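quick q for whoever's on today - can somebody do inverse folding on this one?? i tried earlier but teh output was garbage lol. tokens:
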């Protein structure tokens, strides 16, 4: 700096003024002028605008050096160094208010004068740069379209632009000096939990951080605004130390809405594809049922045997039931109706049945001590069936399908990271078919995606959903022209399997009084005829309110119902769940069975929690209905 800066000397003692002038010239500074009073000093400062002023405190004239220095700072932003013989507390207190850049006591050494001047010039230049940056920062960021907040290193707000004021609901005037988290209130857009700002992490790490996970800003008025944000350290310190942070965030609420609209349209397209496939499959089933019903009617009128037509109707109904069960697997919140089971025979029977009449054969390798599992046997059978059929379709020329089942332990180091460590059973279904192209492999569990001409593409997505709801995983390895291996992992349990004697469908005789409630007149009449035919005394109701009155009446007459069979869902009326709750209030010992076409309804899976004695899914066979009724009646004896 030395040699270029101009200095104004304000000293009323001519001897001292001359000494200062000579010392400054010796130090190679340019002396702008030497004046004797405060009034002259202000005049020369305005005219010459020196880089620094050496100011005596006691001056001749109306103004003191302190008064002059204060005006010099306010009007011209010129740094002042006091040169004085006074150092008493009163004088020092007055001097501090003028924010001087130095203070030299007379007499002084030339080196001491140089150090004071250099330090004052350096300090002033740094402060000037900081002010210029702040002005630029404030002016520029006020005009940008994104919200901007800056803080000091303690996290207290120093600046907000108009966009930030609008989004947060805070004005700069009210927010300045407050801790950032008190103004910038955010929560996770998924969990809705309050989040703390990462200001301490940004300052300590001294790096720019872009947070891509969307969050919600809560304005002072309670408005929820979806935002994303970027945090950066402020380094105004000459040593590179972080002096605060700048936060830039933007309102992405509209973008979020547009993304949701796109996702909604994609879901609608997927549902349309799903509905088209369902309509095709279901219409095929209905065509067989309707056609055979008409043939049975025509042949019955001619006195011919109609058994084969009725058998075809029954088979097609079973296929339609399987289709609806596949759809219900996708139901939100639906849970499998689980039971501890040994599924060795289930695997064999399902696989062999799936290949009836096919060119393939199954070769089994199943561990004799395969662990029990807590599963919905119907759903697991469906999984085996779907994958075996998939293997059948992959081998049009025939071949062998290998089915292995073994016990396996999954540890913390397993690649199957979604599984909780523990004991599992692993079922492998291996075909020697056409395989799946590598670029298609990740899509095979998507609804109605298929690589084969034969097949709907619904089976594997159903299998995936079922296994996931059982707490397991299904994976696939495949290579074109060499075949595919599907691996199913199911959690094993320690409980023992209670084996029940397999009952054949046979004539069944029941005894007792049953109240049946269903909103479908044809279903109600059919169930009534079935139960009357096997020996039950029956009363019918079309909704919950009617059933309640009938139940109350039976109690009053001393001829109560043994069991109540209730439809779970009654559109526009009181369904099974609410009816059971009201029946329990009337009679805590009531035995209720609920029935539903929504076999995956949470109530069907957890019926005991609702005070229900048993469940049965529609459509059901006569034997299945009678067996459930008998079990519920016998449990009360």
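ok took a stab at it. sequence:
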């Amino acid at each position: 700096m030395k040699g270029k800066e101009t200095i104004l000397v304000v000293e009323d003692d001519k001897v001292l003024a001359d000494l200062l002038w000579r010392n400054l010239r010796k130090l190679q500074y340019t002396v702008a002028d030497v004046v004797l009073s405060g009034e002259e000093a202000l005049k020369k400062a305005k005219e010459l605008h020196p880089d620094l002023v050496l100011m005596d405190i006691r001056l001749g004239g109306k103004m003191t050096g302190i008064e002059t220095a204060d005006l010099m700072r306010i009007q011209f932003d010129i740094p002042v160094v006091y040169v004085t013989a006074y150092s008493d507390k009163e004088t020092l207190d007055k001097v501090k208010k003028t924010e001087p850049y130095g203070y030299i006591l007379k007499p002084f050494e030339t080196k001491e004068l140089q150090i004071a001047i250099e330090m004052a010039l350096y300090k002033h230049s740094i402060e000037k740069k900081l002010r210029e940056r702040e002005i630029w920062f404030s002016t520029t960021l006020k005009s940008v379209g994104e919200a901007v907040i800056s803080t000091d290193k303690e996290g207290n707000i120093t600046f907000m632009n108009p966009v930030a004021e609008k989004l947060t609901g805070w004005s700069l005037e009210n927010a300045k000096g407050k801790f950032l988290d008190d103004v910038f209130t955010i929560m996770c857009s998924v969990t809705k939990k309050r989040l703390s700002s990462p200001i301490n992490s940004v300052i300590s790490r001294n790096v720019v951080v872009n947070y891509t996970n969307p969050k919600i800003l809560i304005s002072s008025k309670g408005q929820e605004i979806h935002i994303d944000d970027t945090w950066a350290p402020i380094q105004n310190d000459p040593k590179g130390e972080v002096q605060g942070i700048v936060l830039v965030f933007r309102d992405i609420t509209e973008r979020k809405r547009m993304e949701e609209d796109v996702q909604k349209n994609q879901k609608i397209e997927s549902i349309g594809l799903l509905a088209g496939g369902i309509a095709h499959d279901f219409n095929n089933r209905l065509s067989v049922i309707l056609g055979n019903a008409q043939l049975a009617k025509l042949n019955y009128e001619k006195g011919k045997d109609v058994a084969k037509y009725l058998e075809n109707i029954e088979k097609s109904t079973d296929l339609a039931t399987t289709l609806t069960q596949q759809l219900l697997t996708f139901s939100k919140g639906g849970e499998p109706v689980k039971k501890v089971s040994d599924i060795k025979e289930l695997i064999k029977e399902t696989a062999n049945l799936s290949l009836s009449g096919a060119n393939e054969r199954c070769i089994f390798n199943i561990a004799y001590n395969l662990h029990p599992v807590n599963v919905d046997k119907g759903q697991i059978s469906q999984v085996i069936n779907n994958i075996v059929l998939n293997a059948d379709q992959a081998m049009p020329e025939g071949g062998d399908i290998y089915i292995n089942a073994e016990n396996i332990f999954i540890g913390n180091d397993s690649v199957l990271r979604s599984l909780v460590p523990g004991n599992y059973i692993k079922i492998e279904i291996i075909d020697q078919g056409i395989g799946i192209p590598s670029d298609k492999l990740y899509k095979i569990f998507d609804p109605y995606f298929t690589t084969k001409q034969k097949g709907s593409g619904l089976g594997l997505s159903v299998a995936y959903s079922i296994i996931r709801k059982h707490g397991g995983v299904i994976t696939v390895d495949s290579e074109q022209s060499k075949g595919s291996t599907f691996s199913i992992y199911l959690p094993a349990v320690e409980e023992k399997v209670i084996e029940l004697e397999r009952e054949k469908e046979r004539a069944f005789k029941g005894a007792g009084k049953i109240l049946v409630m269903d909103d479908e007149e044809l279903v109600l009449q059919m169930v009534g005829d079935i139960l009357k035919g096997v020996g039950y005394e029956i009363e019918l109701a079309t909704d919950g309110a009617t059933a309640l009155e009938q139940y109350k009446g039976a109690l009053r007459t001393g001829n109560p119902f043994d069991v109540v069979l209730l439809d779970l869902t009654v559109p526009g009326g009181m369904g099974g769940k609410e009816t059971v709750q009201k029946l329990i209030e009337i009679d805590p010992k009531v035995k209720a069975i609920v029935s539903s076409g929504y076999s995956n309804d949470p109530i069907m899976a957890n019926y005991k929690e609702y005070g229900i004695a048993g469940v049965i899914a529609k459509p059901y066979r006569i034997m299945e209905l009678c067996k459930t009724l008998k079990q519920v009646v016998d449990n009360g004896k």
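fwiw The domain at 6-130 is CATH 3.40.50.2300 (Rossmann fold). also DSSP finds 19 helices and 24 strands in the chain. so keep that in mind when u check it
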